[in-house]
């Protein structure tokens, strides 16, 4: 397989705690009285890109959402187990959800810009945090848009409605919006599934650059994409973690038959 | 077989098409018919019409003559009168009088300050010095009358009032009546009083004398004369001027002559004020209730019961709300307020009587379900992705609601509010019970503290029309003012709805493009 990006790879079993971005221990999630995740144990490496792959409905998105407790927007949810970020279990009772979510950014499958200006969209999170200084906001907006490779395209129309942007631009705006809060972890839920191949490539390059500053977890249905961008990959099937390894091994020499079947397209 | 199937299908389709077309035609023609009928009837109130002299000659007694003002021409009027007479004398055809309609020139239509309309031909004008003046000197005489009136006003304000006050103060201090000051004040007062009497006497000599249809003289004092027309001699431009003058009078003047002439300004004012107060009360409560129901309420039986309650509230007949408002707001709540705060004025009630505040609250209660349902509808239109996006950026639930959800739901909220306002503007039954009256002596807003008098009764267009509908059985003029008010009400409600639609589409354009 063509290797696009250079990687320095540590085997997943040898990850030390300090190299771990998210440490998931015995995580089980029930949504609407249905068990979606079953006893998941995974250590997601820090400052790397980890891809979650698997069939639709296997629990990828649920796992991703449990890293910033977005599952709790669902009225009937039940989570057991622990998720450790920064040496703290985020499922403790006194966790400040707003603070957690500003540390763990998330970008969704479909771009969901607020019906406000581009500028307002990017500084939404900061304003929520209570930042009012115009200069700080201006700097943060420029910085975030630069990081999301959108600055050059929108610098002259920062105060136009975000809805006037194209789909790819909107998705980059969503990334910029999350980046404005300087998150440690960025969760991407099929960020390119609604975009054309060229824009997809654009965003993949962007993601690769972002890993310098954050741990990235990406859910994708696209095997090529997963192989292209990720350093590590986890295969989930019906709520179970089947295999977790560095991407090179997982996509070339999967240890489990199920994984091989899936990535070679025999089912799913 | 195939062909038959197709033709059968075609037939079914065309039947459906024709039926739906028929239904639409029916609806549109019913709507247009209503608007046209009300509009035509209402506009008659403003169009200057000819005055005809009707002479009815009885075989056995003196003939009867009167002036009648009609928009129709005299042939139609004659035919109408004949039809009426034939019906009236159906049992005694021999005694049936003959009618005759003539249009004479120079008929004067004089309107007094009290709203009376008098018809006649010009006889003479009188002043303090002359007994017989021509119509041309009317303007001069009116100037003199105005001058005298302002003199009178001036004397009353600047001379009589201070003396009166001074005397009152002396009386209060129980000063002896023989004191010099007291006597000089009394003398001054008497002198000015005499002056006023004299001016009044002079004023009363200025008059317009007309000859009525029955040849009797009609005398109108010039200081009571409001307007004077020659309805049969108006040019087209004059007529247009009169038309617009009447419209402005209708909109800006209070009703006169037991709501048969004049305008409806207090009713418009009362309606608007009541509706604004209602909106101020109902919008925050309704929106907060809807937010609770949609965003916070757990999905259990209690919530379900609340929802059922809200939709049932919308189905309760409005008169029931009126009775509730009277029993709860006026008697219970208002009565308690009176006992607590206005105890010194009892037994005459302050808030314990129907009034503006209670009417607004009652209407607010009545329209609350509309606002709640529309707001919930608006909230449910906000895409899930927007909420997720907001939460994912660290917003709390409250911040998400206020910064993201509510702006996007604003078209729905606005629709609900406008519907509520339109309903309250047209409601009658509950308002009669809780504070709307057919004639209020004063507006609920004036220049004395506290400026907005929530305890006052007020006039309302719907109630005004309802009242006019009773009068109209006996009086054609009041029927036409009623139709004119109906037209105004329809106009207001349409204008509100159109504003709502425009507003909503603007907001949708801004906030709901992300839905697509």
Number of strands of chain A: 10
Using only C-alpha atoms, the radius of gyration of chain A works out to 18 Å
Runs of chain B with pLDDT <50, length 5+?
A: none
Task: Kindly report the greatest chain-chain contact and the residue count on each side.
Answer: A-B, 28 and 24 residues
Fraction in beta strands of chain A: 25-35%
Order of helices and strands of chain A: EEEHEEHEHHHHHEHEHEEHH
| Termini gap of chain B | 44 Å
Helix content of chain B: 55-70%
Q: Please count the beta strands of chain B (DSSP E, at least 2 residues each).
A: 12
Low-confidence stretches of chain A: none
Relative helix content of chain A: 25-40%
Question: Which secondary structure elements does this structure contain, and how are they paired or packed?
Answer:
The complex is a heterodimer of chains A (268) and B (516).
Chain A lengths: L19 E12 L2 E12 L3 E6 L5 H7 L10 E9 L2 E2 L7 H7 E4 L10 H5 L1 H6 L4 H14 L3 H4 L12 H13 L5 E5 L7 H14 L4 E5 L3 H7 L2 E6 L2 E7 H6 L4 H7 L5
Parallel strand pairs in A: 3-8, 3-9, 6-7, 7-8
Antiparallel strand pairs in A: 1-2, 1-4, 4-5, 9-10
Helix pairs in contact in A: 5-7
Chain B lengths: L1 H42 L6 E8 L6 E7 L3 H15 L9 E5 L4 E6 L4 E10 L11 H35 L7 H26 L1 E5 L5 E5 L3 E5 L6 H17 L2 E2 L4 E2 L2 H32 L4 H15 L2 H24 L14 H25 L3 H9 L4 H30 L2 H6 L1 E2 L20 E2 L1 H11 L4 H36 L5
Helix pairs in contact in B: 1-14, 3-4, 6-9, 6-11, 7-9, 8-9, 9-11, 10-11, 11-14, 13-14
How would you describe this protein?
The complex is a heterodimer of chains A (268) and B (516). Chain A has 268 residues and is of the alpha/beta class. The radius of gyration of chain A is 18 Å and the shape is globular. Chain A has helices at residues 60-66, 97-103, 118-122, 124-129, 134-147, 151-154, 167-179, 197-210, 223-229, 247-252, 257-263, and strands at 20-31, 34-45, 49-54, 77-85, 88-89, 104-107, 185-189, 215-219, 232-237, 240-246. Chain A starts with 19 loop residues before the first strand and ends in a 5-residue tail after the last helix. A six-stranded mixed sheet of chain A has the order 6-7-8-3-9-10, with helices on both faces. Chain A has a four-stranded antiparallel sheet with strand order 2-1-4-5, covered by helices on one side. Chain B is flat, with a radius of gyration of 32 Å. In chain B, strands 7-6-5-4-8 form a five-stranded antiparallel sheet, with helices on one face. A three-stranded antiparallel sheet of chain B has the order 2-1-3, covered by helices on one side. A two-stranded antiparallel sheet of chain B has the order 9-10. In chain B, 29% of the residues are buried. In chain B, strand 4 (107-112) and strand 5 form a beta hairpin. Chain B is 63% helix and 11% strand.
């Amino acid at each position: 397989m063509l290797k696009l990006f250079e990687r320095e790879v540590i085997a997943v079993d040898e990850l030390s705690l300090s190299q771990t971005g998210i440490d998931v221990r015995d995580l089980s999630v029930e949504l609407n009285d249905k068990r979606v995740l079953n006893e998941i144990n995974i250590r997601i490496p820090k400052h790397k890109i980890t891809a979650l792959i698997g069939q639709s409905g296997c629990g990828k998105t649920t796992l991703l959402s449990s890293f910033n407790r977005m599952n709790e927007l669902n009225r009937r949810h039940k989570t057991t187990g622990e998720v450790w970020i920064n040496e703290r279990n985020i499922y403790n009772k006194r966790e400040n959800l707003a603070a957690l979510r500003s540390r763990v950014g998330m970008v969704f499958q479909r771009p969901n810009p607020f019906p406000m200006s581009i500028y307002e969209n990017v500084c939404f999170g900061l304003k929520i945090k209570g930042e009012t200084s115009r200069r700080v906001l201006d700097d943060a907006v420029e910085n975030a848009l630069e990081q999301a490779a959108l600055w050059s395209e929108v610098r002259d129309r920062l105060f136009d409605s975000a809805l006037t942007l194209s789909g790819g631009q909107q998705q980059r705006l969503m990334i910029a919006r999350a980046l404005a809060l300087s998150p440690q972890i960025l969760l991407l839920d099929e960020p390119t599934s609604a975009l054309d191949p060229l824009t997809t490539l654009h965003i993949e390059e962007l993601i690769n650059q972002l890993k310098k500053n954050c741990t990235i977890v990406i859910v994708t249905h696209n095997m090529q994409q997963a192989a292209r961008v990720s350093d590590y990959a986890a295969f989930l099937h019906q709520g179970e973690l089947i295999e977790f390894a560095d991407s090179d091994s997982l996509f070339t020499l999967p240890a489990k038959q199920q994984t091989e079947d899936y990535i070679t397209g025999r089912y799913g | 077989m195939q062909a038959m199937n197709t033709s059968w299908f075609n037939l079914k389709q065309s039947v459906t098409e024709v039926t739906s077309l028929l239904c639409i035609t029916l609806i549109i023609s019913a709507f247009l018919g209503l608007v046209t009928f009300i509009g035509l009837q209402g506009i008659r109130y403003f169009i200057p019409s000819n005055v005809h002299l009707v002479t009815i000659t009885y075989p056995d007694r003196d003939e009867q003559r009167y002036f009648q003002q009609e928009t129709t021409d005299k042939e139609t009027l004659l035919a109408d009168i004949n039809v009426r007479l034939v019906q009236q004398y159906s049992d005694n055809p021999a005694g049936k009088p003959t009618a005759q309609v003539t249009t004479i020139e120079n008929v004067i239509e004089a309107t007094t300050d009290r709203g009376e309309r008098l018809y006649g031909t010009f006889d003479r004008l009188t002043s303090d010095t002359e007994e017989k003046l021509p119509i041309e000197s009317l303007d001069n005489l009116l100037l003199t009358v105005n001058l005298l009136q302002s003199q009178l006003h001036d004397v009353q304000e600047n001379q009589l009032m201070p003396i009166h006050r001074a005397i009152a103060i002396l009386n209060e201090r129980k000063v002896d009546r023989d004191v010099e000051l007291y006597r000089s004040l009394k003398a001054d007062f008497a002198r000015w009083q005499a002056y006023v009497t004299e001016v009044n006497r002079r004023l009363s000599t200025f008059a317009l004398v007309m000859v009525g249809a029955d040849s009797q003289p009609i005398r109108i004092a010039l200081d009571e004369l409001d307007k004077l027309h020659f309805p049969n001699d108006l040019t087209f431009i004059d007529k247009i001027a009169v038309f617009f003058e009447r419209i402005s009078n209708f909109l800006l003047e209070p009703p006169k002559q037991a709501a048969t002439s004049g305008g409806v300004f207090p009713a418009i004012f009362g309606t608007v004020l009541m509706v604004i107060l209602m909106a101020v009360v109902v919008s925050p409560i309704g929106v907060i209730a809807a937010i609770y129901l949609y965003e916070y309420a757990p999905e259990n039986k209690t919530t379900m019961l609340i929802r059922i309650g809200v939709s049932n509230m919308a189905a309760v007949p409005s008169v029931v709300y009126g009775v509730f408002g009277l029993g709860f707001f006026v008697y219970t709540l208002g009565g308690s307020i009176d006992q607590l705060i206005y105890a010194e004025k009892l037994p005459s009630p302050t808030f314990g009587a129907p009034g503006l505040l209670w009417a607004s609250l009652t209407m607010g209660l009545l329209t609350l379900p509309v606002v709640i349902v529309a707001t919930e509808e608006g909230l449910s239109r906000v895409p899930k992705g927007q909420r997720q996006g907001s939460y994912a950026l660290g917003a709390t639930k409250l911040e998400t609601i206020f910064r993201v959800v509510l702006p996007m739901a604003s078209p729905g909220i606005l629709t609900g509010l406008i519907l509520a306002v339109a309903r309250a503007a047209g409601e009658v039954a509950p308002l009669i019970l809780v504070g709307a009256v057919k004639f209020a002596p004063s507006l609920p807003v004036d220049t004395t503290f506290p400026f907005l008098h929530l305890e006052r009764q007020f006039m309302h267009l719907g109630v005004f029309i309802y009242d006019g509908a009773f009068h109209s059985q006996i009086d054609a003029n009041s029927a036409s003012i009623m139709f004119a008010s109906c037209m105004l009400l329809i106009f207001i409600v349409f204008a509100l709805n159109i504003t709502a639609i425009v507003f909503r589409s603007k907001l949708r354009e801004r906030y709901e493009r992300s839905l697509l």
